[in-house]
Specification:
Elements (H helix, E strand, L loop, with lengths): L3 E8 L2 H10 L5 E4 L7 E8 L2 E8 L3 E4 L6 E9 L2 E5 L3 E5 L3 E5 L3 E6 L3 E9 H12 L12 E2 L5 H17 L7 H18 L5 H5 L8 H12 L7 H7 L4 H11 L4 H18 L7 H7 L5 H12 L3 H9 L5
Antiparallel strand pairs: 1-3, 2-5, 3-4, 4-11, 5-10, 6-9, 6-11, 7-8, 7-10, 9-12
Helix pairs in contact: 3-4, 6-9, 9-10
InterPro entries: AraC_XylS_family_regulators, Homeodomain-like_sf, HTH_AraC
Pfam family, one: HTH_18
Keywords: DNA-binding, Transcription, Transcription regulation
């Protein structure tokens, strides 16, 4: 790690903010709520390509993304309201909650007056490489995180402990700063995001073990991911990785501590969870359950609650009332 620094800026006009972003190569379209005054402060902690930005926006303003970027933003709004429009997800409003934004889907963002945030910026390529290292083979599918986590989620408290440590690290001054220590903080942020924030490939981590899997087990898992919406059987999975059903069951028990079909169920639950968060008002969680092969709604709800600590109806309610508008 060679680039470790801190910088603070105070913008008193929308023009100075536009110039700042232009110099960064972003040039978003800036919109301010009032032309009379503007006050926005930003402190950036740089950890060699990963950034922590602490912002205080006393003025209401927003932006429309113009440049193509490929990063994930993990943001927590301590006060006020931050709002994001993200492709199919729609408009997400966040207050005292954690929001995960994929810049590939970002359309625009807005801050209400009096909004204070901490935002971590992680390059998508770095995050996907770290995920591939965790599961032991290349991950071909893009990570798709649940966009807003409830206040009860343990993910942000974990993140905040690392964020506070980063701030203390920089406040200590260069005399005691260590590039090795900074690399551990960066690693901690990556692992906390991948292992504690729900995403479309969480099941690959839920049942992983420390021992390397045989290649045919990894091929079986890839087959499950790419065919999760089809009525596949154990024999189909075994045939896809050129082994017997019995051998596959033995390997999954040894290396994943589960059965192949239970592993497939976890994948389908993760997909169903993502779909429920994005449901339109005319759709039901029961329809999602059926789509992913759960014909018994009560049994689906039981599995869902065991995995996500809430019923599918509760997830849907959070998505429709005050979170996704």
């Amino acid at each position: 790690m060679t680039s470790i620094n801190i910088s603070s800026v105070h913008f008193k006009s929308a023009d100075s903010l536009k110039e700042y972003y232009a110099n960064c190569g972003l040039s978003p379209a800036i919109n301010v709520e009032s032309a009379k005054s503007f006050d926005y402060r930003k402190t950036t902690y740089s950890l060699n390509g990963m950034y922590l930005c602490s912002t205080k926006s006393l003025s209401g303003w927003g932006f429309e993304k113009q440049a193509v970027t490929d990063v994930y933003f993990i943001s927590f709004t301590y006060a006020g309201v931050s709002a994001w429009e993200m492709g199919k997800v729609g408009r997400v409003s966040v207050s005292q909650q954690m929001c995960i934004i994929d810049s590939a889907n970002l359309v625009q963002g807005n801050y209400a007056p009096g909004t204070f945030t901490d935002t971590i910026m992680i390059e998508a390529d770095l995050l996907h490489r770290e995920f591939s290292s965790l599961i032991g083979y290349p991950a071909l599918e893009r990570l798709n995180f649940v966009p807003v986590l409830p206040k009860s989620s343990k993910t942000w408290p974990l993140f905040r402990s690392i964020v506070d440590t980063i701030k203390l690290y920089f406040d200590a001054g260069r005399d005691v700063q260590s590039p090795i220590a900074a690399s551990y903080l960066k690693q901690a942020l990556l692992l906390t995001l991948l292992e504690s924030a729900p995403h479309n490939q969480s099941s690959r981590l839920t049942m992983k073990t420390g021992e390397a899997c045989p290649k045919f087990v990894n091929r079986a898992i890839d087959y499950m991911h790419y065919n999760a919406d089809r009525p596949i059987l154990l024999s189909d999975i075994a045939e896809s990785c050129c082994t017997s059903a019995r051998n596959l069951q033995i390997a999954f028990k040894k290396y994943k501590n589960t059965t192949p079909m239970r592993y497939l169920r976890m994948i389908r639950l993760a997909r169903a969870h993502s779909d429920i968060v994005l449901l339109s008002r005319s759709e039901t969680w029961q329809a999602v359950a059926t789509k992913w092969g759960f014909n018994d709604a009560l049994l689906f709800a039981k599995y869902y609650q065991q995995t996500y600590q809430e019923l599918p109806s509760q997830t849907l309610l959070r998505a429709r009332i005050g979170v996704i508008k």
